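Researcher: Please predict.
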Amino acid sequence: MPALDLLQITKTFNRGTVNEKRALENLSLSLNPGDFVTVIGGNGAGKSTMLNAIAGIWPLDSGSVLLSGKDVTALPEYKRAAYLGRVFQDPMLGTAAGMSILENLALAARRGKRRGLAWEIKKSEQARYQELLASLNLGLENRMTSKVGLLSGGQRQAVTLLMAIIQKPELLLLDEHTAALDPKTAATVLELTDKFVKEKNLTTLMVTHNMQNAIDYGNRLIMMNNGKIILDIYGEEKKKLTVETLLHKFEEISGSEFANDRALLS
């Protein structure tokens, strides 16, 4: 059974106005359990819109979203959160800045579970979180009582990544989660991402502006343009890709040049 099925989803913004924009156009996509799919595309291609459609940020014009065979199209965002893990581009999102690292991890671990009025983090929980933080190799296991708002962008993204996977999600959504980081820190967070995805066999969709990263990571690469998937490459073909051949394929299929300065400069 596919971990994710997008069945001819369409989304239009500002319908009926001069700013009307068809962001997704009858888009269909199926992911097998354990697929690590990188998503690349030009400006306004629909990459983040697709992730928002999966997360239930707003209703679709038409089409269906299925997670492990369950039709979640009509479910609001907060109910879909039980199935999804997500890391955003902005390191300030996804965490509670005024709470400690320990408290943030505890919140993530209890997502979707019944909670009473009592707030207690047991010693067994603390030991587990300390072990998870130690796996980051960032020294955060010794700073569990520090407020998340005091961490650097890279440290915060690493914690957010842990929060997204602490309960194994049916689907992990990464929305340009290293784009706001410096190159060295971005590389560290990407290595951690790859490590966790492989260890936990997580089905993952990773939107990236970096073509080389899209080639280097995952077992499958899709390229979007004008709200559609125009390339879907996997296996040996993906391993042989270069940035130059990927650009050539885009221009050959779309009939236009790739429009994303950040991707081209990365």
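Model: The CA atoms of residues 209 and 262 lie 6 Å apart.
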